[in-house]
Amino acid sequence: MKHFFFIIFLFISLSAYSQNERPFIVIPKFHYGYILPHHESMEYIIKDRIPAVDIMIGLPLLGRQKWQQLYNYPTIGGGFYHAKLGNPEVLGTANSLYIFMTSPYFKIKKNSFDYNVSLGLSYLSKSFDYKDNLYNFAIGTPLNIHVNFNFEHKYQITDKITLFSGVGFTHYSNGAYKMPNYGLNVISTTVGASYLFAKNKPERIKSEIPNFIKKYEFQISSAVGLNGGYPISADLYFLSELSVSFGRQYSHKRGWAFGAELFYNDKKANYFIADEIDYTKKDLLHLGVFVSYDIILGKITFSIQPGVYLFKKFEDGKPIYEKISLKYKFSKHFFCNLSIIAYYANAQYANTGFGFYF
Fold this sequence. Notes:
By secondary structure, the protein is mainly β. It has helices spanning about 1-20, 65-70, 270-275; strands spanning about 25-35, 50-60, 75-85, 95-110, 110-125, 145-155, 160-175, 185-195, 215-230, 235-250, 255-265, 285-295, 300-310, 320-330, 335-345, 345-355. The chain has 2 domains: about 25-195, Porin (Beta Barrel); about 215-355, Porin, CATH 2.40.160.
């Protein structure tokens, strides 16, 4: 009963706040799903389904910037996510804090079909330990990256209340900062509701979007990171990357590019050591080429980059790679970026750095 009164008090307080402040949305969600066993060794630690609860607070964007209108007036904000991972002794629970963006893909009267993307950090109560948790090959550290994608159908009951259901994908990983790091991939169904706290229905700005003038762009960037050792060890290896690309933005929201990347990773010395082959620092260099599909949200660019190696002296049986990057253009010619590099959807390492564009 005391929880019921607390919830009533919270909603009254939020409603009073919204009368004089900027409108905002409270979104409770419930998830129910299962872990995908993408490695054979994980099949033995998956015991049960995955229930989870999400509490999100968002700000409806009203079109003050051009990209907000182009993406059908999205909602941005932050949230808290709690999940039981189906095996209390080995996998434990996940608690995440994240930022998100929800955007309608298209609408039909009171129905809309939305996609939701969230990114943050998650604390997992159980991770690999030589003594106490030897079977958890999925997670090697308590602190991990939290990534979630959701596709939802929404039905607007009133100007303030919306109900929705959908399907989602959640991923936990430390970016191979420390091994083991198979990661956890969760597929789930989702149900929930949203409530708009506002004195009046927010008025959206509708302005004419000018025709897009296609433009070309050249980028050069560098990034550094740390990579955990495997087999399991406490060693951390330095890695760096130099990337150049040439691309074209062909609409307000989309672009493409192609380029080349030079990688250096101290960890690759293990392949020479295992075969008792002499090597130099130059032998740890590897060159790749890639194509990039870019999703552009104002100053932020999300890039999906499949690539293939043209040259490397060590043999690790991985001729192709995938890269996901998030870039923020903080000035007229400079940007910062965060990237995750994977092989066959298995995260290998993360790096961060800066770049120049014109």
